[in-house]
Amino acid sequence: MSPIDIIIVVAFLVLIFVVGGYFYKWISTPDDFYVTGRKLTPFILAATITATNVNVYSFVGQSGTAYQEGLSIIWHTWTGNMALVLSGIFIIPIFRRLRIRTIPEFLGLRYSQGFRGLVAVIWIFRLAFWLGIGIYAIAIAAQTITGVQSFTLWVFVLTGITVFYTILGGTWSVATTDALQFLLMLGGALILLPVAMYAVGGFATLKAQVPAEFMSLVPQSGDFNWLFLIAMVLLSIKWATINQDVLQRAFSSENVRTASKGMVLSGIITTPFALLWILPGIAAKVLYPDLTNFDNAVPTLIVEYFPPVVLGLMACGLLSAMMSTIDSDLNSIATMFTSDLYNGYFNIESSHRQSLTVARLVVLVMGLFIIGFSYLVPVLGGAVEANLTVIGILDTPLFVVAIIYGLLWKRANWQGAFAGYFAGAFVGVFVYLAGDQSFSLAILSSAGAALVVCPLVSLLTPPQEVVKANTIWDAKKPELEHPDDVDPFYIVPKSIPGKLAISASIFGLILYLIGAIVGSTGAVISSYLAVGGMFMIFIGGLVRIYVK
């Protein structure tokens, strides 16, 4: 890395540091810190969700998996985009009307305060583990790009800067720096793809130099086969409906329709982005077939082909991509600890100033845990394997009890939710360890166990207070929106175009699943069915957010 590139990177880090810290004076209440006082507009909301969704895990982890396994890893991103649209039109309106800050807070309203506190503790450390994956990814990239071969140095420097501006500015800092980082990240990605295609001799040459299965969107075999597509859509819907880092951005919106627009637009915007890191990963397979660490695929390509200045800007794009995710999740951790444990479970009454102090201390402490977890990622097989295995198994049963039964079945109680969650997690771990360590099968098994155990235990134990379920069911109606809101959002639309729009999205999901299942036969049409279903979801969602 040349001196000018180093100057560019240092200047970028200083700029993020200063811009983030500027919002310290904007923070006077907990809502300012956690959810920007609920004032985000659709564009900023879409940008910050997109910046949180697209990160160095994409450029390092997913591109590295593309290097190793092929094109089908692109569904890791695309199913997430589909899920953002579905969550935006069906789930987010309910949560936004409840004016909650966290998913554990929703679990407290729906089930019990004890279940709320338990899930909050688990999720605080689960988020810290995810951020450890992110820090690992960015440290690997930084070592390769800069030539400064000190994993520890990069881990401490990047974590320290992100922790600092998150502590000072909360979600205002996070949302604003995310928007800036989103632009840098997009610029870097738009440079990366054409450079990679030029280096390999064009897409036709790339396709000719890898096995046919490598370029299949729905492979019949391998770790990322048709079964992966089914497991991934479940995991992605889970992510878009209960993941704190995504939902906290949506909870920061001006109103329900803004939240819905931000989610849907982010999902659509991010879709073409996936090609910007998946295809370079495959190109690196042709250019560097013998890499020992496949997570180094794209960083190696960048160092080899990018000239000075452009290399510095690309490094800034990669840095910004991961920092935007780390700052969002750090803020989410602070929100959960303060809202769900400090003020919620332990019922400690505190002033605005005391709550903000606690939130900032939590961010600082969790920064240390993130550093520790980053050293575990290589042991678990790299960024993507670590994420899909640990987080998939822990999160999927929570999706079942929170969304499927929490929103659709009033008879579900806290005993059933508790049993379903832990049964799902246990079965997922058992299937993963006892089998061939297939994360797809483990995720589906985890969901299946929760689906069976939760209603069984609920029916064998006394029903809970009707008022708990009624509170949630009432939030499905637009009457709970602010009385000044002149554009209420109906989950079941009033207009014919609205009804057709949600029907198109539901049919699109069914078509996608049919495509995935057809992929088990090796039929070429499976890819067309899956992609066609994805586009139907997008079209339906886009129409839905602009009609009654």
Outline the secondary-structure elements.
Elements: H1 3-22, H2 30-35, H3 42-53, H4 56-69, H5 75-90, H6 92-98, H7 103-110, H8 113-146, H9 151-200, H10 203-208, H11 226-242, H12 244-251, H13 256-270, H14 275-287, H15 297-305, H16 310-345, H17 352-374, H18 383-408, H19 414-434, H20 439-460, H21 466-474, H22 496-518, H23 525-544
Helix pairs in contact: 1-9, 1-16, 3-9, 3-12, 3-13, 3-16, 4-8, 4-14, 5-11, 5-13, 5-23, 6-13, 7-8, 8-9, 8-15, 8-16, 8-17, 8-18, 9-14, 9-16, 9-17, 11-18, 11-20, 11-22, 12-16, 14-15, 16-17, 18-19, 18-20, 19-20, 22-23
Keywords: Membrane, Transmembrane, Transmembrane helix, Transport
Pfam family, one: SSF
Membrane topology: Multi-pass membrane protein
Radius of gyration, CA atoms, in whole angstroms: 22 Å
Roughly how many Å apart are the termini?
54 Å
Give the domain tally: 2
For the secondary structure, the number of strands is 0
Please outline the major beta sheet: none
- As residue ranges, the low-confidence spans are 32-37
CATH superfamily descriptor of the largest domain: Sodium/glucose cotransporter
What is the CATH architecture annotation of the largest domain?
A: Up-down Bundle
Helix/strand structural class: mainly alpha
Order of helices and strands: HHHHHHHHHHHHHHHHHHHHHHH
Strand content: under 5%
Q: Average pLDDT across residues?
A: 83
> Under CATH, the topology of the largest domain is which?
Sodium/glucose cotransporter
Shape: globular
Question: Share of helix among residues?
Answer: over 70%
CATH first level of the largest domain: Mainly Alpha
Please report the number of helical segments.
23
